[in-house]
Amino acid sequence: MHISEGVLSLPVLASGAVVAATGTMIGLRKLDSEKLVSVALLSSVFFIASLIHIPIGPSSAHLILSGLMGLLLGWAAFPAILTGLLLQAVLFQYGGLTVIGINTATMALPAVACHYMFRPLLKKNFFSMSLGAFLCGAMSITLSALLTALALSFTDESFASAAQMIVYGHVPIMIIEGFICASAYGFLQKVRPEMLLATQET
């Protein structure tokens, strides 16, 4: 889901930077010492999981795990994802520094949105919990792909076909991440229920 440097227009880059900065500030304000270890752990998992890229036009497809991060961290997903993207840009030149704002926004904003959309399902029975976690994982990728496509489309109409390719190319990843999120949430509920406290945030 990384957008490369030199692709997007200045207004799109600026909009992404504003969203990323705002989300990161909110995330840092909500971040306490008890959640810090979870943020560091999930940021590391995000960093490693998204290193393997399959090029799709001006973007790429790879595991993101943003839904799981949103589910477990809430707004803290913003600084966690930003940290992972910054390390990837500096160490491996994935994405880039000028697009780090828009890349953070397209991944973290859907993660936080899904956290609030599907959180009510996590408070019911096992089937409802599994469904909520699956939808959080799958829909976060769906929304991220759509936001990435919109960012490209707003930059230049000639990117329309590439934008469609990005959405279609991420369909398998949507399903895979849904199952990963549901499995991880169920596992953590059994062995580390304290990591699920963010799912109860208001």
TrEMBL record:
Membrane topology: Multi-pass membrane protein
Biological source species: Maridesulfovibrio salexigens (strain ATCC 14822 / DSM 2638 / NCIMB 8403 / VKM B-1763) (Desulfovibrio salexigens)
Keyword Chaperone assigned: no
Record-linked Pfam families: CbiM
Intracellular or extracellular location(s): Cell membrane
Ranges annotated as spanning the membrane: 36-56, 68-91, 97-118, 130-154, 166-188
Coiled-coil regions listed in the entry: none
InterPro entries, A to Z: CbiM/NikMN
NCBIfam families per the UniProt record, alphabetical: PRK06265.1-4 (NF004904), PRK06265.1-5 (NF004905), PRK06265.2-5 (NF004909)
This protein's record includes keyword Transport: yes
Protein name: Cobalamin (Vitamin B12) biosynthesis CbiM protein
UniProt GO cellular component terms: plasma membrane
UniProtKB keywords: Cell membrane, Membrane, Transmembrane, Transmembrane helix, Transport
Classification lineage: Bacteria, Pseudomonadati, Thermodesulfobacteriota, Desulfovibrionia, Desulfovibrionales
Biological processes annotated in GO: transition metal ion transport
